[in-house]
Amino acid sequence: MSEPLELKKTLNLPKTDFPMKASLPQNEPKQLAAWQDESLYERILEVRKGKPLFVLHDGPPYPTGEIHLGTGLNKILKDLVVKTRSMAGYYAPYVPGWDCHGLPIETQVEKELGGKGKVPPAEFRKMCRQFALRFVEQHKKDFKRLGIFGRWNDPYLTMSHEYEATIAGAFLDFMEKGYVYRGRKPVYWCIYDSTALAEAEVEYEDHSSPSIWVKFAVVAGGRNETGNSRGAPNRVLRVPDVPFCVTANIALCSENELGRAIGLVHVKLQRLGQLRLGQIEIHVVFEVGCAIYAA
After folding, report:
1. What is the H or E stretch that residue 169 is in?
2. Which contiguous run of DSSP H or E holds residue 282?
3. What is the mean pLDDT of residues 206-216?
4. What is the three-class DSSP state of 145?
5. Which residues, 6 or more positions from 158, have their beta carbon under 8 angstroms from its beta carbon?
6. CATH number at residue 49
7. How far apart are the first and last CA of the chain?
8. Assigned domain for 262 exists
9. Binning pLDDT at 50, 70 and 90, where does residue 178 land?
C-alpha cells in the first residue's frame, strides 16, 4: 500500500534550522546576557575611538516608581538615535541619568509614610535618597531588558556628591567673575505640599472675576487747597478691580495736588456677608485700613 502524499514535500522550500516560533520571552534574555558577557557596548566604543563625537544628552527622568510607557518610549527613541549615529561612524557614548531631587520623590515618600511631617526633616531627606536609589536600580534593570546600550555601571545622578561638587564649582566660577549678586525675587510656595515651586511647575487656570468699583471714604484730616476742610472730597472712587485684590490695599497713590486735597482715607466696598481677616472685620462693607499718599 502506497504512503499518502505529503503536499509539503512537493514544494521547493529552503531548509533551515531557524525556529518557526520566535519565543521572545525565553530568547531575548539569553541574547541580552550574551551582549553583556561579550561587553558589546564597550567594544563598539573601542572601534569608534577617534571618530567624530556625537553626544545625546539624556534629560533625566525621576526615579519615582517603575518605568511606564512614557519613560520606556523615551529611552527607546534615544537608543535608536545613538545606535544609528554609531552605525554611521560616530563615536557615540550614551550616559543615562536620573533627577533625584524634587517634589515628585518627596510626594512618593510621604505616601509610603502615610502623610506629611511623620519624621524629622533630616530623616525625611535620608529616606528620599534611599527611595531614589531603589528605583534607579529598578530603572536600570528595566531599561537593560529593553536592549538599551549605555554606561549603566556609572550613570549620572543629581544627588551624587561628585555632581553636587561640580555645581558648587560652577557657582564659584560665577562668583569670581562677578556674575552673582544679591537681590530679591518672589518664590512660588505650595501651601499644600509646603515646598518651593519652580516657575516651570506653576500652571495658571483661566478664571473670570467680577469687576468692581471701590469707594474710599476720606479719614479725618481731609482738606482743600486753602487748608480748610470744607469743600474737600469725602469719597474717592477707585477704578474697577477684582475682589480678591481689595484686602491687600494699604495705600492709594495720587498726584501731589490730589494727595494734599484728600489726605488719609479708608476703604469702603459694598459687599454682602461677614468675614474677619486678622484685625479687619468685614460685614456688609469692607473696612480695610488704607491711605492716600501724594506721589
Report:
1. helix 161-176
2. strand 280-289
3. 72
4. helix
5. 60, 97, 98, 99, 100, 101, 164
6. 3.40.50.620
7. 120
8. yes
9. very high
**DSSP-assigned letters across all residues of 71-86:** HHHHHHHHHHHHHHHH
In order, the DSSP letters of 193-255 are TTEEE-GGG--PPP-----EEEEEEEPTT---TTS-STT--SEEEEEEE-GGGGGG--EEEE-
What integer pLDDT is reported at residue 143 of this predicted model? 96
Instruction: Identify whether 125 is part of a domain.
Output: yes
Q: Is residue 247 part of a domain?
A: yes
Alpha-carbon distance of 109 to 64, in angstroms, equals: 9
**Cell matching residue 48:** 569608534
- Are residues 268 and 137 part of one domain? no
**Whole-angstrom Cα distance, residue 269 to residue 257?**
25
Q: Which domain holds residue 47?
A: 35-176
- What 3-state class would DSSP assign to 286? strand
- Arithmetic mean of pLDDT over the chain: 79
Report how far Cα 196 is from the mean position of its chain's Cα atoms. 11
CB atoms within 10 A of CB 85: 19
- All residues at 6 or more sequence positions from 162 whose CB lies less than 8 Å from its CB, including other chains: none
Rounded Cα gap, residues 150 and 1, in angstroms? 64
Shared domain check, 236 and 171: no
Question: Both 133 and 247 in a single domain?
Answer: no
Mean pLDDT score, 36-64: 93
pLDDT digits (tens, 9 = 90+) for 4-45: 888 877 888 788 888 778 888 889 999 999 999 999 999 999
- Classify residue 181: in a domain, yes or no: no
Q: Report the domain count for the chain.
A: 2
**% of the chain surpassing 70 pLDDT:** 72
Same domain, 63 and 143: yes
Between residues 267 and 252, which one has the greater pLDDT?
A: 252
3-state secondary structure of 50: coil
